[in-house]
TrEMBL record:
Keywords: Membrane. Transmembrane segments: none annotated. This is Penicillin-binding transpeptidase domain-containing protein. It is found in: Membrane. Residues 157-319 form the Penicillin-binding protein dimerisation domain. Residues 352-657 form the Penicillin-binding protein transpeptidase domain. PANTHER family: PENICILLIN-BINDING PROTEIN 3 (PTHR30627:SF25), PEPTIDOGLYCAN D,D-TRANSPEPTIDASE (PTHR30627). Belongs to the transpeptidase family. The keyword Membrane applies. Residues 40-148 form the NTF2-like N-terminal transpeptidase domain. It holds the Pfam family MecA_N. The keyword Membrane applies. It comes from Ureibacillus aquaedulcis.
């Protein structure tokens, strides 16, 4: 009996073990099957996100491809053509699978028209060759699509916004220019053709080889117009035998060189641009420099258009994406176009800059850098020879002197005077006894001496400003000491960045946080040393002189709220302003040449750039001038190497003052 029970128990154990093994195997097999499904689903999603379409054949069921009328090769090309054609990028997908092996996913991605959100897809994973594959239909390209359908898209191009001045005069606009070209049948044959091509090449500044290359294109026929060169806006259309002209759209800059460093220019996109921004297409233009670059997004707007499914018969089956175009914004700047041109012309052949500002509002009325370049040439494609002419010009027309930092020279002396007055060190009545044209504090300065232009034995604040006495201000700064002097300077905008759409390093007091020597302290007091300020920095910081001690930050975009800070007391400026008027009205004043142009105050300056004491360096001529009545305007002008230019900044700024005086009447 006992043996019988042992036998029965053994049988039961064997059966249990066998059943457990079967269950375990089934469980293992189900897990392996699920892993296969999960892997295929994940690989399908990752393939779409990465657009690795070469992987499609190994992920989809062959039978489903055949049923849809595609081969392994053609399905890959189909995806590439459609996704590439509409610029699909930045795809994000969320997916899930249910118990019946249905794979559902939601895709969001960018196209040439913008972002498409939440496109819903659904398919099934089916068993194929001991694995699982995607049951593919054309609806996995876009829902609702059939195998013989196509994807089409249209683009409604946004109109680029214009840049206008404060009076709504265009600084950058959309207009037309002319494209020169030829019709092959009109060129003749043999020597006649050769002579015509040579003449055309010479007159259009291109090569015969280039013309032949254009004529050799596969699409060219005898009656076709073959474009050779797009002329810059405003260029003449000379009569050239064999040449015809047709109108083409262009971006234009009416002030040409006069405002190039403000407006910048646009240019056609390249492969790198398109890679960064897939909404761009070949032939589009974008801002390359200046305001065109700084406000690219606002100016370009957003193209509209439609992406849709087209049937084999050419009918529209369904719309995938439709966007209304948004034309670019008009950017209104504070510049006065007429003043800008006047200030540019006034500099003549000199290299330099003129900046004009309204001290109370901060509005910049003119930003001139000279020499300059014609931005219209860059829009249509500048030739290598034209570019070389600019690039090899020793006066460097591509440099924006508006934002270039210079030593401000003696134009800075009213700032030093203001700090001195507020510290109590400088007084109106104090007189310095100064002998000769050179001075040094003591023998510790070695061979270094400070020079002045006018020899005056008794110098007070008025005399020092009117005659621009370097020694007086050096002595005042030494008496103040570095701590007091720097404390006054730090009330200004040294080290600060302005909220302007311009690239510009901050103004600096010195290379280090401390002068490190009395000589550098003394030199800084009259605008030399390591002091560096752009014309914009100067007109901004000098605004305290025209604005009762209040500094106004610069604005370039119309409608910007004025940002100010109090730097000096009104009483301080009231003391200095009459002396700056005398710089103009007094016969001995350094800006007496401007007398009679209006009730103006001014301060001239000469900043010398030399490598060693005793040698004669390059001298930049500077002037700051402002309306002494109510501070309606302030201008700063710099002429580089004025001996080479033949005229000083004071002489060249006269037309600017005359225009400003009329403007403020």
């Amino acid at each position: 009996m006992k043996k019988k029970w042992v036998f029965i128990v053994g049988i039961i154990a064997i059966l249990l073990i066998a059943a457990g093994s079967v269950f375990g195997y089934q469980q293992w097999n189900e897990n392996k099957t699920q892993e296969k499904k999960d892997r295929v689903a994940k690989e399908w999603v990752e393939m779409l996100k990465a657009q690795s379409f070469e992987e499609i054949p190994q992920l989809v069921a062959s039978d489903s491809l055949e049923k849809a009328g595609y081969t392994k090769e053609s399905i890959v090309e189909k995806y590439k053509a459609i996704f590439g054609g509409i610029g699909v990028s930045n795809m994000e997908i969320e997916y899930e699978m249910d118990e019946e092996d249905n794979l559902e996913y939601v895709a969001t991605f960018d196209t040439v028209l913008g972002t498409i959100s939440e496109i819903h897809y659904k398919t099934k994973l089916i068993e194929s060759d001991e694995d699982y594959k995607v049951d593919w239909t054309a609806e996995l390209i876009f829902p609702g699509m059939l195998s013989d359908d196509k994807i089409r898209y249209t683009v409604d191009e946004a109109v680029r916004g214009e840049i206008v001045d404060r009076n709504n005069s265009s600084l950058a606009l959309n207009t037309i220019t002319y494209q020169a070209g030829v019709v092959p049948k009109n060129l003749g044959e043999g020597q006649t053709r050769t002579n015509k091509l040579a003449n055309i090449a010479n007159r259009l500044a291109i090569t015969v080889d280039f013309i032949e290359g254009q004529l050799g294109q596969s699409w060219v026929q005898d009656e076709h117009f073959v474009p050779l060169k797009t002329l810059p806006y405003g260029a003449d259309t000379p009569v050239i035998e064999g040449v015809q002209y047709q109108q083409v759209d262009t971006r234009a800059y009416p002030l040409r060189e006069a405002a190039a460093h403000i407006t910048g220019y646009v240019g056609e996109v390249n492969a790198e641009d398109i890679e960064k921004d897939p909404t761009l297409q070949a032939g589009d233009v974008i801002g390359r420099t200046g305001l065109e670059f700084a406000f690219e997004k606002e100016l370009r707007g957003q193209n509209g258009g439609e992406i849709y499914i087209e049937t084999a018969n050419g009918d529209k089956r369904a719309t995938i994406q439709k966007i209304e175009k948004q034309d670019g914004q008009t950017i209104e700047v504070t510049i006065d176009a007429n003043l800008q041109q006047t200030a540019f012309d006034a500099l003549g052949d000199a290299a330099g800059s003129t900046v004009v500002m309204e001290p109370k509002t901060g509005n910049l009325l003119a930003l001139v850098s000279k020499p300059s370049y014609n931005p219209n040439q860059f829009v249509v494609g500048i030739s290598q020879s034209q570019y070389d002419d600019y690039n090899n010009d020793e006066d460097k027309p591509f440099i924006s002197r508006i934002t270039t930092r210079y030593a401000p020279g003696s134009t800075f002396k009213p700032i030093t005077a203001s700090i001195g007055l507020e510290s109590g060190v400088t007084t109106v009545d104090e007189t310095h006894q100064i002998s000769g044209l050179q001075w040094q504090k003591d023998e510790s300065w070695g061979n270094y001496r400070i020079s002045r232009v006018s020899e005056t034995a008794r110098v007070n604040l008025r005399t020092a400003l009117v005659k621009s006495d370097n020694i007086y201000f050096a002595q005042e700064a030494l008496e103040m000491g570095e701590e007091t002097f720097r404390e006054g300077l730090n009330k200004l905008t040294f080290g600060e960045s302005y909220e302007l759409p311009l690239t510009m390093e901050p103004a600096q007091i010195s290379n280090e946080e401390s002068f490190g020597s009395e000589i550098l302290l003394a030199d800084t007091a009259y605008g030399q040393g390591q002091l560096l300020m752009s014309p914009i920095h100067m007109v901004t910081n000098y605004s305290v002189l025209a604005n009762d001690g209040v500094l106004t930050y610069p604005n370039l975009i119309a409608g910007s709220e004025a940002k100010t800070k109090e730097v000096f007391a009104k009483e301080t400026i009231d003391t200095i302003r009459p002396m700056l008027v005398e710089v103009v009205t007094a016969p001995e004043g350094t800006a007496h040449e401007l007398n009679g142009l209006g009730n103006i105050a001014a301060k001239t300056g000469t900043a010398e750039l030399k490598k060693a004491q005793g040698e004669r360096g390059v001298e930049n001529s500077l002037i700051t001038v402002f309306d002494a009545n109510d501070g309606g305007y302030m201008a700063v002008s710099i002429v580089e190497d004025h001996r080479k230019a033949g005229k000083t900044a004071t002489q060249l700024i006269k037309p600017v003052i005359q225009y400003l005086e009329l403007l403020t009447q």
